[in-house]
Protein backbone atom coordinates (compact mmCIF):
# COMPACT_ATOMS: atom_id res chain seq x y z
CA UNK A 1 0.00 0.00 0.00
CA UNK A 2 2.85 2.34 0.86
CA UNK A 3 4.52 1.69 -2.47
CA UNK A 4 1.26 2.33 -4.32
CA UNK A 5 0.76 5.61 -2.45
CA UNK A 6 4.31 6.77 -3.22
CA UNK A 7 3.91 5.86 -6.87
CA UNK A 8 0.65 7.82 -7.05
CA UNK A 9 2.23 10.84 -5.42
CA UNK A 10 5.21 10.77 -7.77
CA UNK A 11 2.85 10.46 -10.73
CA UNK A 12 0.92 13.47 -9.46
CA UNK A 13 4.12 15.50 -9.20
CA UNK A 14 5.14 14.52 -12.70
CA UNK A 15 1.71 15.37 -14.08
CA UNK A 16 1.66 18.71 -12.27
CA UNK A 17 5.10 19.57 -13.65
CA UNK A 18 3.84 18.84 -17.16
CA UNK A 19 0.65 20.84 -16.77
CA UNK A 20 2.07 24.03 -15.29
CA UNK A 21 4.84 26.14 -16.81
CA UNK A 22 7.26 27.42 -14.15
CA UNK A 23 6.60 31.12 -14.68
CA UNK A 24 6.26 33.05 -17.95
CA UNK A 25 8.62 31.70 -20.59
CA UNK A 26 9.01 32.42 -24.29
CA UNK A 27 10.01 29.36 -26.30
CA UNK A 28 11.85 30.92 -29.24
CA UNK A 29 12.83 27.53 -30.61
CA UNK A 30 9.23 27.03 -31.72
CA UNK A 31 9.33 30.34 -33.57
CA UNK A 32 12.41 29.24 -35.45
CA UNK A 33 11.64 25.58 -36.18
CA UNK A 34 7.88 25.10 -36.27
CA UNK A 35 6.15 24.91 -39.61
CA UNK A 36 2.72 25.64 -38.13
CA UNK A 37 0.70 28.61 -39.44
CA UNK A 38 1.08 30.32 -36.06
CA UNK A 39 4.88 30.16 -36.19
CA UNK A 40 4.99 31.48 -39.75
CA UNK A 41 3.33 34.66 -38.52
CA UNK A 42 6.20 35.51 -36.17
CA UNK A 43 9.77 36.38 -37.13
CA UNK A 44 12.60 36.33 -34.57
CA UNK A 45 15.19 39.05 -35.19
CA UNK A 46 18.42 39.50 -33.26
CA UNK A 47 19.25 43.09 -32.25
CA UNK A 48 22.70 43.57 -33.74
CA UNK A 49 24.83 46.51 -34.95
CA UNK A 50 23.94 45.53 -38.53
CA UNK A 51 20.19 45.75 -37.79
CA UNK A 52 20.58 49.18 -36.18
CA UNK A 53 22.65 50.43 -39.11
CA UNK A 54 19.92 49.36 -41.52
CA UNK A 55 17.24 51.11 -39.43
CA UNK A 56 19.34 54.29 -39.20
CA UNK A 57 19.72 54.35 -42.98
CA UNK A 58 15.96 54.22 -43.54
CA UNK A 59 15.01 56.61 -40.74
CA UNK A 60 15.27 60.28 -41.64
CA UNK A 61 14.57 63.29 -39.54
CA UNK A 62 11.16 64.73 -40.39
CA UNK A 63 11.55 67.78 -42.60
CA UNK A 64 9.19 70.72 -42.81
CA UNK A 65 7.44 70.71 -46.22
CA UNK A 66 8.82 73.34 -48.58
CA UNK A 67 5.42 74.92 -49.24
CA UNK A 68 5.01 75.76 -45.56
CA UNK A 69 8.39 77.45 -45.44
CA UNK A 70 7.70 79.31 -48.68
CA UNK A 71 4.59 81.05 -47.38
CA UNK A 72 5.20 84.67 -46.39
CA UNK A 73 2.38 86.77 -44.87
CA UNK A 74 1.12 89.74 -46.82
CA UNK A 75 0.01 93.04 -45.33
CA UNK A 76 -2.99 92.61 -43.07
CA UNK A 77 -6.31 93.00 -44.86
CA UNK A 78 -9.30 94.31 -42.98
CA UNK A 79 -12.28 91.99 -42.73
CA UNK A 80 -15.85 91.70 -41.47
CA UNK A 81 -16.12 92.11 -37.70
CA UNK A 82 -12.93 94.11 -37.26
CA UNK A 83 -13.30 97.21 -35.10
CA UNK A 84 -11.32 100.17 -36.43
CA UNK A 85 -10.25 103.40 -34.78
CA UNK A 86 -9.98 106.25 -37.28
CA UNK A 87 -8.15 109.37 -36.18
CA UNK A 88 -8.44 112.73 -37.96
CA UNK A 89 -5.90 115.00 -36.35
CA UNK A 90 -7.20 118.35 -35.06
CA UNK A 91 -10.76 117.14 -35.58
CA UNK A 92 -11.92 115.43 -32.37
CA UNK A 93 -15.55 115.54 -33.53
CA UNK A 94 -14.61 113.08 -36.27
CA UNK A 95 -12.16 111.06 -34.23
CA UNK A 96 -14.35 110.59 -31.14
CA UNK A 97 -17.95 111.53 -31.98
CA UNK A 98 -19.19 109.91 -28.75
CA UNK A 99 -16.94 112.16 -26.73
CA UNK A 100 -13.43 111.65 -25.31
CA UNK A 101 -14.87 110.58 -21.95
CA UNK A 102 -16.27 107.38 -23.48
CA UNK A 103 -14.43 104.11 -23.70
CA UNK A 104 -12.25 103.94 -26.78
CA UNK A 105 -14.36 101.07 -28.19
CA UNK A 106 -17.40 103.36 -28.22
CA UNK A 107 -15.69 105.47 -30.84
CA UNK A 108 -14.64 102.53 -32.97
CA UNK A 109 -15.94 101.81 -36.44
CA UNK A 110 -17.22 98.25 -36.93
CA UNK A 111 -16.83 96.62 -40.33
CA UNK A 112 -20.32 95.45 -41.16
CA UNK A 113 -21.32 92.08 -42.69
CA UNK A 114 -21.35 93.63 -46.17
CA UNK A 115 -17.71 94.72 -45.69
CA UNK A 116 -18.41 98.45 -45.35
CA UNK A 117 -18.37 101.03 -42.56
CA UNK A 118 -19.99 104.43 -42.18
CA UNK A 119 -17.94 107.59 -41.71
CA UNK A 120 -19.21 111.17 -41.24
CA UNK A 121 -19.41 113.36 -44.35
CA UNK A 122 -18.32 110.66 -46.77
CA UNK A 123 -20.92 107.98 -45.93
CA UNK A 124 -20.31 104.29 -46.62
CA UNK A 125 -16.75 103.22 -47.20
CA UNK A 126 -15.65 99.80 -48.43
CA UNK A 127 -13.22 98.38 -45.87
CA UNK A 128 -13.17 94.59 -46.20
CA UNK A 129 -10.32 93.23 -48.29
CA UNK A 130 -8.28 96.40 -48.09
CA UNK A 131 -5.02 97.01 -46.31
CA UNK A 132 -4.92 99.62 -43.58
CA UNK A 133 -2.94 101.95 -45.82
CA UNK A 134 -5.46 101.59 -48.67
CA UNK A 135 -8.38 102.43 -46.37
CA UNK A 136 -6.52 105.37 -44.84
CA UNK A 137 -5.75 106.82 -48.27
CA UNK A 138 -9.39 106.43 -49.41
CA UNK A 139 -10.84 108.16 -46.33
CA UNK A 140 -8.23 110.92 -46.50
CA UNK A 141 -8.94 111.61 -50.17
CA UNK A 142 -12.71 111.76 -49.72
CA UNK A 143 -12.51 113.92 -46.59
CA UNK A 144 -10.42 116.48 -48.46
CA UNK A 145 -13.66 117.81 -49.95
CA UNK A 146 -14.79 118.84 -46.44
CA UNK A 147 -11.61 119.17 -44.37
CA UNK A 148 -8.53 121.03 -45.46
CA UNK A 149 -5.49 118.73 -45.74
CA UNK A 150 -6.90 116.00 -43.48
CA UNK A 151 -4.33 113.95 -41.54
CA UNK A 152 -5.90 110.52 -41.16
CA UNK A 153 -4.68 107.48 -39.25
CA UNK A 154 -6.34 104.05 -39.10
CA UNK A 155 -5.68 101.32 -36.52
CA UNK A 156 -7.44 98.10 -35.53
CA UNK A 157 -8.93 98.01 -32.03
CA UNK A 158 -10.21 94.45 -32.22
CA UNK A 159 -9.28 91.73 -34.69
CA UNK A 160 -12.11 89.38 -35.59
CA UNK A 161 -11.95 88.53 -39.29
CA UNK A 162 -8.83 86.37 -39.49
CA UNK A 163 -7.92 83.61 -37.09
CA UNK A 164 -6.29 80.25 -36.55
CA UNK A 165 -7.74 77.55 -34.30
CA UNK A 166 -5.89 75.37 -31.78
CA UNK A 167 -7.29 72.02 -30.62
CA UNK A 168 -6.03 69.09 -28.60
CA UNK A 169 -3.45 69.00 -25.81
CA UNK A 170 -3.21 72.74 -25.23
CA UNK A 171 -3.77 74.55 -21.97
CA UNK A 172 -5.82 77.13 -23.87
CA UNK A 173 -7.39 75.83 -27.06
CA UNK A 174 -9.67 77.75 -29.40
CA UNK A 175 -9.26 80.59 -31.90
CA UNK A 176 -6.35 83.01 -32.01
CA UNK A 177 -6.56 86.20 -34.09
CA UNK A 178 -4.16 87.09 -36.87
CA UNK A 179 -3.14 90.70 -36.54
CA UNK A 180 -1.00 93.24 -38.35
CA UNK A 181 1.98 91.48 -36.81
CA UNK A 182 2.54 88.15 -38.64
CA UNK A 183 1.83 85.11 -36.46
CA UNK A 184 4.20 82.16 -36.70
CA UNK A 185 3.52 78.61 -35.60
CA UNK A 186 5.63 78.70 -32.44
CA UNK A 187 4.04 81.94 -31.23
CA UNK A 188 0.57 80.44 -31.64
CA UNK A 189 1.63 77.28 -29.78
CA UNK A 190 3.22 79.39 -27.05
CA UNK A 191 -0.01 81.37 -26.65
CA UNK A 192 -1.98 78.14 -26.36
CA UNK A 193 0.40 76.56 -23.85
CA UNK A 194 1.27 72.90 -24.46
CA UNK A 195 0.09 70.35 -21.90
CA UNK A 196 3.52 68.72 -21.81
CA UNK A 197 2.44 65.84 -19.59
CA UNK A 198 -0.36 64.67 -21.90
CA UNK A 199 0.73 65.77 -25.39
CA UNK A 200 2.22 63.70 -28.20
CA UNK A 201 4.89 66.17 -29.26
CA UNK A 202 5.76 64.22 -32.39
CA UNK A 203 2.21 64.23 -33.77
CA UNK A 204 1.40 67.93 -34.33
CA UNK A 205 -0.87 68.41 -37.36
CA UNK A 206 -1.26 71.66 -39.28
CA UNK A 207 -4.34 71.70 -41.53
CA UNK A 208 -4.24 74.21 -44.38
CA UNK A 209 -6.27 74.47 -47.57
CA UNK A 210 -7.56 70.90 -47.30
CA UNK A 211 -4.14 69.35 -46.61
CA UNK A 212 -2.66 67.98 -43.41
CA UNK A 213 1.00 68.45 -42.51
CA UNK A 214 2.56 66.27 -39.80
CA UNK A 215 5.13 68.21 -37.77
CA UNK A 216 7.40 67.16 -34.93
CA UNK A 217 7.55 69.57 -31.99
CA UNK A 218 10.33 67.48 -30.53
CA UNK A 219 12.56 68.73 -33.37
CA UNK A 220 12.83 72.01 -31.45
CA UNK A 221 15.61 70.24 -29.56
CA UNK A 222 17.63 70.15 -32.77
CA UNK A 223 19.78 73.06 -33.83
CA UNK A 224 18.28 75.47 -36.40
CA UNK A 225 14.77 74.03 -36.18
CA UNK A 226 12.64 75.14 -39.13
CA UNK A 227 9.43 75.27 -37.10
CA UNK A 228 10.14 78.91 -36.22
CA UNK A 229 9.97 79.78 -39.92
CA UNK A 230 6.37 78.62 -40.43
CA UNK A 231 3.92 81.52 -40.61
CA UNK A 232 0.20 81.00 -40.23
CA UNK A 233 -2.63 82.31 -42.32
CA UNK A 234 -6.38 82.71 -41.94
CA UNK A 235 -8.17 79.40 -41.60
CA UNK A 236 -5.22 77.32 -40.41
CA UNK A 237 -6.04 74.64 -37.84
CA UNK A 238 -3.46 73.26 -35.41
CA UNK A 239 -4.10 69.95 -33.69
CA UNK A 240 -1.83 68.48 -31.01
CA UNK A 241 -2.89 64.91 -30.13
CA UNK A 242 -2.80 63.39 -26.68
CA UNK A 243 -0.31 60.60 -25.98
CA UNK A 244 -2.91 58.16 -24.59
CA UNK A 245 -2.10 55.52 -27.21
CA UNK A 246 1.62 56.17 -27.34
CA UNK A 247 2.63 53.44 -24.94
CA UNK A 248 5.01 50.55 -24.61
CA UNK A 249 4.43 47.70 -22.19
CA UNK A 250 7.09 46.21 -19.91
CA UNK A 251 6.46 42.69 -18.64
CA UNK A 252 8.31 39.80 -17.07
CA UNK A 253 11.42 40.05 -14.93
CA UNK A 254 11.74 43.83 -14.64
CA UNK A 255 11.66 45.80 -11.43
CA UNK A 256 8.36 47.48 -12.24
CA UNK A 257 6.12 45.94 -14.90
CA UNK A 258 3.78 48.56 -16.31
CA UNK A 259 2.59 50.49 -19.36
CA UNK A 260 4.95 53.37 -20.13
CA UNK A 261 3.62 56.47 -21.90
CA UNK A 262 6.00 58.73 -23.81
CA UNK A 263 5.54 62.04 -25.63
CA UNK A 264 8.55 62.47 -27.90
CA UNK A 265 9.22 61.03 -31.32
CA UNK A 266 11.52 58.27 -30.12
CA UNK A 267 11.94 56.12 -27.02
CA UNK A 268 14.82 53.69 -27.00
CA UNK A 269 14.94 50.30 -25.33
CA UNK A 270 17.52 51.35 -22.73
CA UNK A 271 15.43 54.33 -21.59
CA UNK A 272 12.28 52.20 -21.34
CA UNK A 273 13.94 49.53 -19.21
CA UNK A 274 15.74 52.15 -17.13
CA UNK A 275 12.48 53.97 -16.40
CA UNK A 276 11.15 50.94 -14.52
CA UNK A 277 14.37 50.34 -12.61
CA UNK A 278 16.04 47.93 -15.01
CA UNK A 279 16.09 44.15 -15.07
CA UNK A 280 15.55 42.21 -11.87
CA UNK A 281 19.09 41.12 -11.10
CA UNK A 282 17.91 38.14 -9.08
CA UNK A 283 15.30 36.59 -11.34
CA UNK A 284 15.93 37.79 -14.91
CA UNK A 285 17.65 36.06 -17.78
CA UNK A 286 19.84 38.62 -19.53
CA UNK A 287 19.72 36.64 -22.77
CA UNK A 288 15.93 36.71 -22.83
CA UNK A 289 15.13 40.39 -23.47
CA UNK A 290 12.50 40.57 -26.19
CA UNK A 291 10.64 43.37 -27.98
CA UNK A 292 7.38 42.06 -29.44
CA UNK A 293 6.02 44.17 -32.28
CA UNK A 294 2.67 43.44 -33.86
CA UNK A 295 1.37 44.28 -37.32
CA UNK A 296 -2.02 45.35 -38.60
CA UNK A 297 -2.63 42.22 -40.64
CA UNK A 298 -0.95 38.96 -39.63
CA UNK A 299 -2.27 37.31 -42.78
CA UNK A 300 -0.07 39.51 -44.96
CA UNK A 301 3.09 39.98 -42.91
CA UNK A 302 4.59 38.39 -39.80
CA UNK A 303 4.88 40.08 -36.46
CA UNK A 304 8.44 40.55 -35.24
CA UNK A 305 10.09 39.55 -32.00
CA UNK A 306 13.42 41.32 -31.49
CA UNK A 307 15.86 39.65 -29.11
CA UNK A 308 18.66 41.37 -27.20
CA UNK A 309 21.42 39.51 -25.40
CA UNK A 310 21.72 41.82 -22.39
CA UNK A 311 24.73 39.85 -21.15
CA UNK A 312 26.76 40.99 -24.13
CA UNK A 313 29.29 43.81 -23.49
CA UNK A 314 27.72 45.85 -26.28
CA UNK A 315 24.14 45.31 -25.07
CA UNK A 316 23.79 48.75 -23.45
CA UNK A 317 24.92 50.51 -26.64
CA UNK A 318 22.56 48.43 -28.76
CA UNK A 319 19.65 49.11 -26.40
CA UNK A 320 20.33 52.86 -26.55
CA UNK A 321 20.09 52.84 -30.34
CA UNK A 322 17.10 50.54 -30.70
CA UNK A 323 14.04 52.77 -31.01
CA UNK A 324 10.68 51.45 -29.88
CA UNK A 325 7.33 51.95 -31.55
CA UNK A 326 3.94 52.58 -29.91
CA UNK A 327 2.31 49.38 -28.58
CA UNK A 328 5.60 47.46 -28.45
CA UNK A 329 5.75 44.86 -25.67
CA UNK A 330 9.08 44.45 -23.85
CA UNK A 331 9.29 41.07 -22.19
CA UNK A 332 12.18 39.87 -20.02
CA UNK A 333 12.28 36.14 -19.41
CA UNK A 334 13.14 34.48 -16.08
CA UNK A 335 16.44 32.80 -15.31
CA UNK A 336 16.51 29.00 -15.09
CA UNK A 337 16.79 28.98 -11.30
CA UNK A 338 13.85 31.35 -11.07
CA UNK A 339 11.66 29.04 -13.11
CA UNK A 340 12.78 26.09 -10.98
CA UNK A 341 11.93 27.94 -7.75
CA UNK A 342 8.50 28.83 -9.10
CA UNK A 343 8.02 25.23 -10.15
CA UNK A 344 8.80 24.07 -6.60
CA UNK A 345 6.39 26.68 -5.20
CA UNK A 346 3.61 25.32 -7.40
CA UNK A 347 4.24 21.85 -5.94
CA UNK A 348 3.80 22.86 -2.30
CA UNK A 349 0.48 21.06 -2.24
CA UNK A 350 2.12 17.88 -3.52
CA UNK A 351 4.92 18.25 -0.97
CA UNK A 352 2.28 18.21 1.74
CA UNK A 353 0.95 14.96 0.32
CA UNK A 354 4.46 13.50 0.43
CA UNK A 355 4.80 14.53 4.05
CA UNK A 356 1.50 12.89 4.87
CA UNK A 357 2.61 9.70 3.15
CA UNK A 358 5.86 9.66 5.15
CA UNK A 359 3.96 10.10 8.39
CA UNK A 360 1.63 7.20 7.54
CA UNK A 361 4.64 5.00 6.86
CA UNK A 362 6.25 5.98 10.17
CA UNK A 363 3.04 5.35 12.11
CA UNK A 364 2.58 1.92 10.51
CA UNK A 365 6.16 0.97 11.35
CA UNK A 366 5.69 1.99 14.99
CA UNK A 367 2.50 -0.04 15.25
CA UNK A 368 4.27 -3.08 13.93
TrEMBL record:
Transmembrane segments: none annotated. Residues 162-239, 246-332 form the SLBB domain. Residues 72-156 form the Polysaccharide export protein N-terminal domain. Residues 1-21 form the signal peptide. Residues 335-359 form the Outer-membrane lipoprotein Wza C-terminal domain. The keyword Lyase does not apply. Keywords: Cell outer membrane, Ion transport, Lipoprotein, Membrane, Palmitate, Polysaccharide transport, Porin, Signal, Sugar transport, Transmembrane, Transmembrane beta strand, Transport. The keyword Membrane applies. It is found in: Cell outer membrane. It is a multi-pass membrane protein. It holds the Pfam family Poly_export. Belongs to the BexD/CtrA/VexA family. This is Polysaccharide biosynthesis/export family protein. The lineage of its organism: Bacteria, Pseudomonadati, Pseudomonadota, Gammaproteobacteria, Pseudomonadales.
Amino acid sequence: MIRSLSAAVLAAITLQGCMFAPGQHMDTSRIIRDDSPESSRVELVQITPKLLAMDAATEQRAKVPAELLAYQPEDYRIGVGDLLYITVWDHPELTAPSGPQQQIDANGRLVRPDGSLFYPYIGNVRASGRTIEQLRADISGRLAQYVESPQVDVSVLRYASQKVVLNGAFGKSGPQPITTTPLNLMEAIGNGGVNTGAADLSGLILKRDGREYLLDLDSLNYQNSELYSIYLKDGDQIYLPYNDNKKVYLMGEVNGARALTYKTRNLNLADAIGTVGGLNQTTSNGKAVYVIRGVENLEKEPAKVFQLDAQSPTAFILAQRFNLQPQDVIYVGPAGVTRWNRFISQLLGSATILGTGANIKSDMSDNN
